[in-house]
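Teaching soon. Got one?

===
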Amino acid sequence: MLLGGGAIIAAIYFANGGPAGNVAVQVPTIEPPSADTTRPTPASSESDPPAQESAPPTPAPSETGTEARSRRAEPGSPISHREFGDWNFGLGSLKFSADKVGGWDYTSCAPVDAAGVLAKTHCDQAVQIAYSAYGGNIKAVQVLLGFPTARDAKAAATRLAKLSSSALKWRRDRVLKSYAYGKIRWRDSKDYVIVTIVTANKAASGRAAKFHGYMQADIESYFTLRDL
């Protein structure tokens, strides 16, 4: 299932530079924190050991990823991981899929804001979703951020692009600890910023860049159309 239209996804994919484009930073190699199945516990910056969050989130319970994706959200409604199920992508002969293995909704952006960028740009919604593909050889995390205006979202994406991966606290316990491919892409789409982190071991590293590019383009296209 395409989250957005096929033509839109292809246009975004190539506008982002294809598999090599729109890559902000390399995923740092760190020891991730222990997984917590009942509440999100994003890690601190990669240069520091995992620390307790200064403002604990109050998210909805995590999901297993076995649910089907719900119908398209009502325009203007709060974003939620429940809008998304397993990712099944097909565009011509190109096909990718990933199982949703976790989802977390936050009541604010504070739990994922490590550098104050989101607070300064008025971020007011945050969601994380974890995926696994190719028998666990690729693992991905998406951070979805909502803003009052497209101008705020653009400002946040611009500032994040100038910083390292430590600007966000994301679920590092849900990506591979060691990997042959590990990169982060982010971009704004209307009132949202979408961040996609993908790691792959050697067995899947050859397909990881395209997987990453199309996963990012697909979610961008979804948010382009979400509130229409």
